[in-house]
């Protein structure tokens, strides 16, 4: 099973994909990780990427595609990939589709975590960290308890880029760039919406249910549904 997970920044996509990777024994493919790895290995391609990044340019789709092909063609990861943060645009989605076909694979399901801008704003602008112990909180959803001796109000700090303008901008960029990609997968009937505004466990169970069906794990319980 190959999976794509979509969700705006602050939707909890990272947490959920970690859970899924463990439960379903998948390989998490994030282009950021692939690029960093290549840079660290100092391969010919890695050095090329370093100079592109240093010059402030964006790494081309060609380079990204060849990094992705390395993973897709690897037998260890055959039909075991979860794509996180990729594809970001329509041409990447089409490329990925062709690439998977070449290796006799496909995308089986696209999970879209749905979270409203309002909730995202609170998740991002409410994020604080205790400067004494490093624990993180959210002033809206998970404030420090009253009797906490360490993490008092005066020690709670915000990150500069955790402000509302940045949150809105990131959300809009996400919406605009992923919309055509989602339409592409909707036409293939692959998109499943998951409410990302509930708690982590509920979200995880919902995603798990969808993936279990794909894996055929539920066949043993309700085989008749799949026979006809
Ligand atoms: Zn503290």
What does this protein look like?
By secondary structure, this protein is an alpha/beta fold. It contains nine helices and eight strands. The protein has helices at 13-24, 31-41, 44-54, 61-72, 90-102, 117-125, 164-187, 200-215, 224-227, and strands at 3-6, 27-29, 81-84, 109-114, 127-130, 136-138, 156-157, 191-195. The strands form two sheets. It has a five-stranded parallel sheet, with helices on both faces. Strands 6-5-7 form a three-stranded antiparallel sheet. α2 crosses α3 (44-54), α4 packs parallel to α5 and α6 (117-125) crosses α7. The longest helix has 24 residues, at 164-187. The protein is globular and about 60 Å long. It starts with a strand and ends with a helix. The mean pLDDT is 90. The protein binds zinc ion. Zinc ion binds at residues 130, 132-133, 135, 150-151.
Number of strands: 8
Give the assembly state of these chains. single chain
Please provide the ordered H/E string of secondary-structure elements: EHEHHHEHEHEEEHEHH
Ligands present:
zinc ion
Helix-strand makeup class: alpha/beta
Work out the strand percent. 5-15%
Q: Percent of residues in helical segments?
A: 40-55%
Residue stretches low in confidence (pLDDT < 50, at least 5 long) are none
Largest sheet: 5 strands, parallel
Shape: globular
């Amino acid at each position: 099973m190959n999976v794509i997970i979509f969700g705006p920044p602050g939707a909890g996509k990272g947490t959920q994909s970690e859970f899924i990777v463990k439960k379903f024994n998948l390989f998490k493919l994030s282009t950021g990780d692939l690029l960093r790895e290549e840079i660290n290995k100092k391969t010919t391609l890695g050095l090329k990427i370093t100079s592109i990044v240093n010059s402030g340019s964006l790494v081309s789709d060609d380079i990204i595609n060849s990094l992705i092909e390395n993973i897709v063609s690897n037998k260890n990861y055959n039909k075991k990939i979860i794509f996180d943060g990729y594809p970001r645009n329509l041409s990447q989605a089409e490329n990925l589709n062709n690439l998977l076909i070449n290796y006799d694979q496909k995308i089986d399901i696209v999970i879209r975590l749905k979270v409203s801008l309002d909730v995202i704003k609170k998740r991002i602008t409410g994020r604080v960290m205790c400067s004494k112990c490093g624990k993180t909180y959210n002033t809206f959803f998970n404030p420090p308890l009253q009797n906490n001796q360490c993490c008092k109000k005066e020690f709670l700090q915000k990150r500069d880029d955790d402000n509302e303008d940045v949150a809105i901008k990131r959300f809009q960029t996400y919406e605009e760039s992923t919309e055509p990609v989602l339409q592409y997968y909707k036409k293939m009937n692959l998109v499943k919406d998951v409410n990302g505004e509930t708690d982590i466990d509920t979200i995880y169970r919902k995603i798990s249910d969808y993936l279990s069906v794909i894996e055929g794990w539920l066949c043993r319980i309700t085989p008749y549904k799949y026979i006809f």
